[in-house]
What does this fold into?
Amino acid sequence: MGSDTVEVRMVTAAGEYTASVPAGISAGKYEVSKVSPEEAIVQIDEFKKELTGKEFNQLGLDEILNKSNLGGNAKLAVSAAFWKSEVRSKLRKYQKFPKLFTLMFEGGKHGNPEITIQEIAVVEDTVNTAVIDFQVLKKYLENQGTETTVGAEGAFSPKDWDNERVLQTISDVFGEKKMALDMAGSFIPDSLNIKEIIAKYPVFSVEDPFDDESWNEWKTFYEDYKDKILIVGDDLTATNPIRLQMATNPRVINAMVIKPNQNGTISGTIETAKIARENGIATVVSHRGEETDDDWLVDLALEIEADYVKFGGLERGERVAKYNRLRELGMT
It folds into this structure.
C-alpha cells in the first residue's frame, strides 16, 4: 500500500487522458501549498464546471488554475492531464536526450538514516548502461553478503552502512564514473564535510549542499567550485522564478532541479525552466519521493530539453516506468 495521491481523468477533443501527481518526502518550505488528497478531489470536483465545454490552451488553463483556490496538488493534476493530452496527441521525434542521474544508494529520509547523504547517483548516458550498472552493483552487494532491499526511490540502502562506505563502494565498483550527490541541505547534519568528499571522489554534481536560507555558505561554495562541478538548487529554488532570481543575483548555482509539483502548473514549470536556460542554468528534471506509476514527467523533460533527469533506481515500478518511457521515446 502506497501513499494516497491525486489522479485526474480529462476528456478532450484529442481523447481521454489521465495524470497523477506525486508528493515529496523531504518537501521544501518554498514549494506550492498542497491539500490532502481527499480535499483535492473535492476541490477538483467543484472546479470542473469551470472547464467543461470550454476551449483553452495550456497557458489559458493554468491562468484559470492560478486564480482558483485549488491546492497545488489539485492544480497540477488538472494542468498535467491537459498537457498530457496535448503532447501525446502529436507524434514527436526527440533528437536530444538528457543524461541520467541513476540512483544507486539512498539515505536520509529516503532510507537508512545512517547514510546521511540523501541520494548517491551515477551519471549515465543511456538507459541500457543505467540498467547494466544497477545490476552490476546489485550483484556486487549480493556477493559481499549485503542486503539489497531498496529505499523510497528504488536504490539500495543497506543497514549499518554510512556515507563513507557507500561512496567507497561506488568508487570500487564503477571506478572514475561520475557521481551526482543530493545532500538535502535542509536535513543533513552540519558535520558532513562536503569539500573532503569532492576532493576524494569523482563528484560531478552536488545538490542542496546547504540549507535554503544559508546564502553566504552557498555563495562561498559557488565561488570555490563553480568551474569544477554542478552546484544544484532544489529546495533553494523550488521551481519558482522568484527563488531562481534570488539564486542568480548574486549567482550561487549553475544548475537547478525542476519539479512540477513544487510549482503547481505545467506552464509555470516550463517558464521557470526557460528562465533557467536564459541565465545559463542547467536543468535537472526530477521525480519525487512519493512517486506514481505515471510517466508524463519524461515527456516534460524532453519537451523542455532538460540537461539531466533523476528518476531513481531500477527496483520499484514507479521508477522503472520512467526509464521504460525513455525507451519508448527512442533513448537506448
